[in-house]
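Researcher: Hi, I'm a grad student and pretty new to this. My advisor asked me to get structures for two proteins we've been looking at. I'm not sure of the right format, so I'll just paste the first sequence and hope you can take it from there.
Model: That works fine. Here's the first sequence with its structure tokens right after it:
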Amino acid sequence: LDNVLRALNRNSGVQRWKSPLPLRPTSGPAKAGETIVVTGVAPMLRSYNAKDGRAAGDLPTSGEIAAPLHVFNDSTRPLPVLILLTRDIVKGATLTALTRSIDPTIAPVVPLPTQREGDAR
């Protein structure tokens, strides 16, 4: 109604936090772990921290979002999986499964600042 994401206390109904949305939502939010994911008319997933409503990041999609997000929790996986259906006028429909990586990002190995090239230790 007003492009605002709100969290309410389950017992009392008191508003815990609210966060303005930079988009018009196309469906209800989805909770994946400690993250709230919102979809809109733009080809983008917007995520928010479930504890305080702070923005947690954006993820561009390959086309227009064609259906509400589905969260898949599997006891064999440590993190939830988001199932996303997009459509493109040229490519057609695409089904994508997304999850967070728990591995650190791979970075090139560089010499230590105190180590000169050619020094072997």
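Researcher: Oh nice, that was easy. Here's the second one.
Model: And its structure:
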Amino acid sequence: MDLNASDDSPRSFKKIIYFVRHAEAVHNVKEREAVQEAIARGETDKSQQDEARRAVLRGDESLRDAPLSEHGIHQVSTSFESLAALTSSKIPRPEVVLVSPLRRTLMTATELFGGKNANNEEGSQCRFTAIEMLREKRTGLSCDERSDLETIRAEFPHVDLSGLDGTDIPPIGEDNIAVRARTAKFLDEKLPHIEGNYLAIVSHKGWLREFRKTLKSRVDEGRIRVDFDLDKWDTTLYDNAEVRVVAMRWQDGELTSVVSRSVTNALSMVDDGFQYSLGPPSSGFSMFLAHRTTKVHFIVHAEG
């Protein structure tokens, strides 16, 4: 799949994208236990708890590119059932699944979108592609380092690894601002040119957080309009294995509008036109949507 196609696309186009955070991984369990122990010791300050969380991960090579926990696998199964209700009769399954090359995201994407059956005639028709730009912030901790290509290829033979060619590899020690810049580059240079009208993006809490901050900055600049079913959409974090259905429209090569819903809310409103919720190209927004659903929050200017 060519992720760097020339920009000869129509003046206005739309993509429906399933944004997904990976399910609980083994290192997430260790982090949670460390925080609970810190609280039990009377360490109530968040900075103390964060240090306890990081300390349990430092130097633990058993957590390198950690897999999903047993509970994480159950989380994906639950998300799969919810998503199946939507994709079986409403919005199509993704044609392309873009995924971070870490084991926890690859496992989540595979379980959620049927990657194990990708080569079967009766299996998934999704194309799976690993992209470095979707990685979690490279903290220097072993849990945030991916496996070598041979290991990934052996475990996930259905995933196209051609994009892991040594370019776009984030530097170790990058901060949140650097991750945000990475999400902006993906939004501007990669996402509009990916073939397919229905996509999935499987990434990490930090990446998804900074992606929303990128959207928020463009709302503040008046460049785009967004419509989320969340009151504090720009600061609310994704839960493990959470799936959100997002409609995005581009006009003249620029992203102009974003409509984001939980799977449940997308399912309840899809017959009222979720797939067409971005309105006509001239408006680039879901103007009629407000009359057809509850829990709509139009975010046009910065909130106080």
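Researcher: Is there anything I should tell my advisor about the second?
Model: You could mention this: Confidence is low (pLDDT under 50) at residues 1-8, 119-123, 275-304.
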